[in-house]
Amino acid sequence: MAHESHEQVDAVTGVTTTGHTWDDIQELNNPLPRWWLWTFYLTIVWSVLYAIAYPAIPMVSSYTKGVLGWQSREAVEVDLAELRQQRSGMTAKLAASSLDEIKQDPEMFAFARAQGKASFGDNCAPCHGAGGAGAKGYPNLNDDDWLWGGSLAQVEHTIRYGARSTSDKGHSGTMPAFGRDGMLKREEISHVADYVRSLSGLPTDKAADLNAGAKVFADNCAACHGDKGQGMQDLGAPNLSDKIWLFGSDKATIVEGLNNGRGGVMPTWHGRLDDTTIKALTLYVHSLGGDQRP
Amino acid sequence: MADAPLSHPLGAAASDEDAPLYAPRKQIYPQAVKGRYRTIKWVVLAITLGIYYFLPFIRWDRGPNAPDQAILVDLANGRFYFFFIEIWPQEVYYITGLLVLAALALFLMNAVAGRVWCGYLCPQTVWTDLFYAVERWIEGDRRDRMRKDQQKLTLKVAGQKGLKHFIWLMIAWWTGGAWVLYFADAPTLVYELATLQAPLLAYTWIGILTFTTYTLAGFMREQVCTYMCPWPRIQAALTDEYALNVTYRYDRGEPRGSVKKNEVLKLQGLPAGDCIDCNQCVNVCPTGVDIRKGLQLDCIQCGLCMDACDTVMDKIGRPQGLIAYDTEMNVKARMEGRPEVRHIVRSRTLFYAGIIALVGAIMITSLAMRQNIYLSVMHDRNPLFVRLSDGSIRNGFTIRVANKHLDERRYALTVEGLADAKIDIIGGEVDQQGRAIVTVGPDQTLEARVLVTDTASAASSSTDLQFILTDLSNGDKAATSDHFKAP
Fold it and tell me: Is the pTM for the entire model greater than 0.80?
């Protein structure tokens, strides 16, 4: 870079140069376009006014609040209030209507399902999955098999108070740990596991003693699961004669349940979610498949 | 550049290489002109502005459940109304087709007669022309305006300029005002605007368009065409040697000279042209170019120099058409004594016309066959299938039914492809024949959840499934396919 004297004038344009030359290319000393310059000044003025009006400068323990008193947190609250205001008509209608009334009204039903779906994603999906498909130990809400009942009222009760939860009104009843607590012997557990598999038509070992299993079942299991293993919703005892298995249908899994017991927990949502949200959740969950067995 | 078809032997291009790349803007004072092309331009101006300003007020009766405005972009409800056509958001491809047609029409215009769009139809040209007319009406013609700008500002001139800007702003404001009328019921919005009850958005858009119209037509003018607009560059790539352009016929005009001098030269048998170098063609030009330098980027081919030159030719008793729609090729042909070539109908124009006809036919056909019933089906993503307690497999689907009729309709949904399929619906009802029935309001869509159960447990891991929707009032059908998933 050759440094030359300043007052050089470019022959073609008649504009002075900055005096800098790179590879024989000179830089013209044109002034900045006026519109650009004034826009630039305007942004400086704007930034000063902005810093006065809005929260801007961080201090040691706080920050400048701005004379307008605007805060993003308050803005969110205003937005939320607006949203609640917007929905208030529908929310009030939901609050005032029974589950059956909502289901009969297409507009309310659609609104409740939409709200329920959003709330399901926020609160229920971690255990039951985004589409309510469940997982091992977490019931699939799309099928027609309901541990605690699949009617609208039963679904609402389960959501509100949970199962084996901290709420007094929640469902209770657990599968005892027959093996661990020494109530059944190892071979008895093996027999009854084979028998339970046979209840829903699953194949069993040729060596399995189903008669012995039936006796163990009648003595120990039928009280909760029923004579034919049809289950009991009051106690949350699953139907053992259908094709749906909460934990799995292989013998090892059944033996594991017999040894250590079972007792998945559904928390209580009463007091954590408001009444309309619980209603909306009930209708959404019910619409996934609960209808199929009232 | 020497071989380019549009270069010109008389152009001042010889010194181009030394010229600065930057050209300061020259103030242009176009002179008033009368003639054939000026008349055409006035008519086009009246028609195009008339359409723009008054179209929103045209009514079109669509029945009780739809707006009665002929052209309406209903953003809130996602509908576009164009006379007898109602377009839903999923049918934007009609607008794509319209834009394709517009582009092709532009190409065709260019192939036939150059920048017809720029010279006569472009909003920038039309509004600038109108603003120039106002300027001329208040401040006087070219010389008056030049004089007034050079002199010290007097109170009278300041008043004139103030009036001019006021009228410009009124036109600009009306331009923005007409724009928003396309997006709401025009008479209602006019009333709301007049009584200051219109939504803020309307005023904002009027403000934006007032500003752009005032700036673009009042101040930026030919700079928009020369520097901002891509079309001059694009059309330079699209044009060919047969396209008619506003052309100075230098075969006839050169060498230039005064009337008397050239007459003397002619008597002596020396070469003398018809151009008397009166500069009228330059004075009337709204972009300030000299057409005698040949076809150039800045020239929008508005035709006013042809009017100016014809007027002069009439006065000095020479034939009109020294500047006319012609081709560079023909000018050269005449100079060399070859016959002229005129090919309006040639492969290029036929090709453009053919594509226009094809795209137009496709659009008309698809519009004519457009269905007023629409069904979309979405399979549940999670879970893909559900095992029920009796072992059968069920799939969940979300369906959306659109009713484009202006009255309420009932539809029946059935499935094909799966033997012994049982259908159930949440958000509808199931009739005795096992069909899912939905009721959709006028011009609305409805979403419902459909559960299909394979009662025979016959499905393989993926079975093709057809959903068929039947309009119970007239038997119209819509179908869409999906899959039935099983383990």
Answer: no
